[in-house]
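From the pipeline queue, job 12 of 40. The input is one protein chain; the requested action is below.

Action: predict structure.
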Amino acid sequence: MKTNVTLKIDKQLLQEAKVLAARKGTSLSRMLSETLEEKVRRELEYERAKERALRRLRRAPDLGCEPIASRDHLHERW
């Protein structure tokens, strides 16, 4: 189901966007819709990848490494 949306954007930007859409042989509405779909798709893919990576880190074996010293400790002046 599609829904109309009202946007407030700069007139110059609107004009340039219309020209860009015309150059691509599409409507401004379709161009904006495809751009939003791509943005949402990438964001969702990123979140899924992040969750997968975090799950792997939580399941990773403990390698027995010592904690890294704090920055202040490393830069103490004698």
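Job complete. The longest helix spans residues 28-59.
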